[in-house]
Design brief:
- By secondary structure, the protein is of the alpha/beta class.
- It has a single domain, classed as Rossmann fold.
- The protein is 43% helix and 15% strand.
- The protein has 8 helices and 7 strands.
- The protein has a 7-stranded parallel sheet with strand order 3-2-1-4-5-6-7, with helices on both faces.
- Strand 2, helix 2 and strand 3 form a beta-alpha-beta unit.
- Helix 3 runs parallel beside helix 4 and helix 4 runs parallel beside helix 5.
- The longest helix is centred in the middle third of the chain and has 29 residues.
- 46% of the residues are buried.
Length: 256
C-alpha cells in the first residue's frame, strides 16, 4: 500500500470547521496527516458534522481545539495541546478569516481592527509559534497562508479592511520565506478567487456566483476542494523547491 503524501505528519488548520479550512483538513487526513482543528466554534456553520469527527469516523487522527486566533492565550493553548497530543508540528495552514463590509469612509475603527486582528495579526502570531516549534525540532516544516485574489489582483469593492489584510498576508509570506528558507521552513500563500463557502454565501454583498460567471475565465465559482488540493501540493514533498510563492487558484480571474 502506498503512503499518503503527508503520512506521519502533524498539521494545524485554523478555521478548520467550515469552508476552505474544512476541505483542507479532510484532504490532509486523506493523505495520512494527524490534524488539529483550530476554530472558535466546534460546530459547523451549516450544521454538518464537525471536521474532527468526520476524520475520526474515517479512521484518521484529529482533535478540535477551541481557538480565537486573535488572542495570544488561545494560540499558546493551541500549541500546548498540539504538542501534548502529537509531540510535534510539521504543517501549519493559516486559514481563519473574517470579512467586514465598508469603504474607508464608512468602515468603523472597530471593524478595521477586528479584521486586521484575525486576518493579518493572527497569521503573524500563529506563524511565530509555529516557526519557533519547527526550529526546536530541527526538521523543518511548512506554512501555507490563505490570502485572496482580493489582496493581490482586484480589491473587493466595499471591503477595504479585508482586501488590505489579505495583501498584508501575501507580503508577510514572502518575508517569512526569505527569513527561514535557510532553516528548511517553506512558506507559501494560496490566493483563492471567489469560492463557494459559507463566508461567500452569507457575509459578502451581491450574487457572487453571477459576478464570477460574468467575469472569470472559467465562468464558474470555485469549490473548497479545489483550493484544498493546491494547499495539499504545497504542503507535500512534491513542492520541496517552492517557497515564497503566491499560488492563484481563481478560475483565471488574475488574467483579466
Amino acid at each position: 500500500m502506498s503512503r499518503g503524501m503527508l503520512e506521519g505528519s502533524t498539521a494545524i488548520v485554523t478555521g478548520g470547521n467550515t469552508g476552505i479550512g474544512r476541505a483542507i483538513a479532510l484532504a490532509f487526513a486523506r493523505e495520512g496527516a494527524k490534524l488539529v482543528i483550530a476554530s472558535r466554534h466546534e460546530t459547523h456553520r451549516e450544521g454538518l458534522m464537525p471536521t474532527h469527527l468526520v476524520i475520526q469516523s474515517s479512521g484518521g487522527e484529529a482533535i478540535f481545539v477551541p481557538t480565537d486566533v486573535s488572542k495570544a492565550a488561545d494560540v499558546e493553548a493551541l500549541f500546548s495541546t498540539t504538542l501534548e497530543r502529537f509531540g510535534r508540528l510539521d504543517v501549519l495552514v493559516n486559514n481563519a478569516g473574517i470579512v467586514a463590509l465598508g469603504s474607508v469612509g464608512d468602515t468603523s475603527l472597530e471593524d478595521w481592527n477586528r479584521v486586521m486582528a484575525v486576518d493579518l495579526a493572527a497569521v503573524f502570531l500563529v506563524s511565530k509559534l509555529a516557526v519557533e516549534q519547527m526550529l526546536r525540532q530541527g526538521t523543518g516544516g511548512n506554512i501555507i497562508n490563505i490570502a485572496s485574489e482580493d489582496g493581490y489582483v482586484y480589491p473587493v469593492p466595499g471591503a477595504v479592511a479585508y482586501s488590505v489584510a489579505k495583501a498584508g498576508v501575501i507580503f508577510l509570506t514572502r518575508q517569512m520565506a526569505l527569513d527561514y528558507g535557510g532553516k528548511d521552513i517553506r512558506v507559501n500563500v494560496v490566493c483563492p478567487g471567489a469560492t463557494d463557502t459559507p463566508m461567500t454565501r452569507y457575509d459578502t454583498v451581491g450574487n457572487v456566483e453571477a459576478i464570477v460567471k460574468a467575469a472569470a475565465t472559467m465562468g464558474r465559482i470555485g469549490q473548497p476542494e479545489e483550493i484544498a488540493e493546491a494547499v495539499l501540493f504545497l504542503a507535500s514533498e512534491r513542492a520541496s523547491y517552492i517557497t515564497g510563492h503566491n499560488l492563484n487558484v481563481d478560475g483565471g480571474w488574475a488574467c483579466l
